[in-house]
Amino acid sequence: MKFIGGFMHLHRMFALLAGLALTVLSASAPAHDQRMIIQSTTSTDNSGLYDHLLPLFEEDTGIKAQVVAVGTGQAIRNAANGDGDVLLVHAADAEEAFVEQGHGVERFDLMYNDFVIVGPTKDPAGIAGSNDVLASLQKIADVSAAFVSRGDDSGTHKAERKLWSEISVDVEPVSGTWYRETGSGMGTTLNVATGLDAYTLTDRATWQAFGNKQAHQVLVEGDPRLFNQYGITRVDEQRHPQVNHADAKVFVEWMLSDAGQQAIADYTLDGQQLFFPNARR
Amino acid sequence: MSSVAAPSASGPLQAAFKLIATADPDLIEIVTLSLKVSLSAVLFACLIGLPLGAVIGSLRFPGRALLNLILNALMGLPPVTVGLLVYLMISASGPLGIFQLLYTPAAMILAQTILITPIVAALTRDVVAAMHEEYREEFDSLLLSPIQRAIALLRDARYRLVTVALAGFGRAIAEVGAVIIVGGNINHVTRVMTTTIALETSRGNLELALALGAILLSLALVINASLMGVARIGVRTGA
After folding, report:
1. Disulfide check for A157: which of A112, A150, A198, B189 has CB 3.0–4.6 Å away?
2. What is the DSSP letter of A241?
């Protein structure tokens, strides 16, 4: 009885599979002591800032921080769902709204850097060397030179859309022509910009750390409008009781302290400082 | 720099060899987690998908056509959709939030299991249905119950089902859309091969990304070869 004889084997096989599955389950069950999650913008991660900061923080406090690096918009939404303990992004208005809606305790200025416009050396809009970002964007629009936008509701995207609106250029109708929205992170958008020989607005840190610059260069910088402020906010434990508020509190206080601010200032890439601490004390 | 140090080699292949040759500890960690997550997902998918496929492939019951249709459609589930659904379920404000699964390997296993169970079930169904045609008369003469038939068919098809499991594994190990959402690509916690490749691409480290892709491909090759080898030996010895 070939088929009947098989029952035992099959049962044993499934019992074995089920046993394995249970082992796997228990092995990958989360261990949550000391787990502290930062919902973060990508620039601070892509530029290597956390690789520099977090070991120093752990040394000082014994707390291990884990970073989920997504666009500012998504980071805020994740944190508003209670899926993070600290929010570190760069869109002050959205951060204040986050606090007002009861998701965050208080927002603090943490550090700043600046946005730059990068583009091809050919520079069809002739903006190289300018420190007037509005005039430069106007020139890009005038000649319909290819411009790549994040299009993802990130901090950089919000900053870029604000600049266009200041010169009353409506990019919605031209989206898909010279104005391209990637709907992706800064790095992906930079890959598209170099691939399309297009201009794009980027934070300086991500650009500095980016490995696929090709013939692209920083063309516009130094306009006060390109100021890029990063903020830090602890997720409110009253609204989201499961957050690790004790460790989050220690982290925010450390980042705003002399030690944290100095650690931010000390981080350089290729000899260039990428973030400038400006916490009010 | 990144978690995996970019080797100073010329070309992605050399970079891949260098990463492997120096047994880069971060690379080993990432590869180990990738295998753990995807092999676990295959395990769970087989636990659910094999019996389900066998039942649908060998039994006639009302609603079977509809179930077939749904199963076939689910084979085309976009990983990012699965990731989003699982995220909404296990988010702190989701119905399963209390289990705190988000941003853990367990969440990644869950998402990949959902992704590949329809594939395992549908392919099992096809294998079993074909075999059932062959054996139908024999089964009738033995007066086997429907469940006994399903079990007998599964047992007899076991070496062909290795290919089914491999198809599921291939889909799991290659996807990035689901694990990056529910895992969060956290360094040393939920970073796997595909999320590392996505990260390095976004950092513009295209050679390193390509090198990691080559390693992922080689891994899939080795695992496929060994499992196919086992199946072939099994067929030959009639075990």
Report:
1. A150
2. T
- Exposure on the CB side of residue B64, measured as CA atoms within 13 A: 13
Q: Are residues A221 and A133 in the same domain?
A: yes
- Domain membership of residue A18 (yes or no) is no
Same domain, A186 and A148: yes
Residue A242 within a domain: yes
Q: Residue A222 corresponds to which tokens in the numbers above?
A: 């130094």
Average pLDDT, stretch A49-59? Answer: 96
pLDDT tens by residue, B119-154: 999 999 999 999 998 888 888 898 888 888 889 999
Backbone angles phi, psi at A38, to 5 degrees: -100, 120
Q: Which stretches in chain B have pLDDT values below 70? A: 1-10, 238-239
Chain-chain contact of A3 with B46 (C-beta, under 8 angstroms): no
Cα–Cα distance measured from residue B56 to residue B52, given in angstroms and rounded to the nearest whole number: 6
Same domain, A267 and A248: yes
* CB atoms A17 and B101 under 8 Å: no
Interface of A with B in 150-209 (CB under 8 A): 184-188, 190-191, 209
Q: Are B204 and A83 in contact (CB < 8 Å)? A: no
| CB distance A182 to A192 below 8 Å | yes
Q: A129 to chain B nearest CA, in Å?
A: 25
Q: Is A170 exposed, middle or buried (0-12, 13-18, 19+ CB in 10 A)?
A: exposed
Predicted ipTM of the assembly: 0.83
| CA-to-CA dists, residue A57 to A213, A262, B28, angstroms | 32, 12, 26
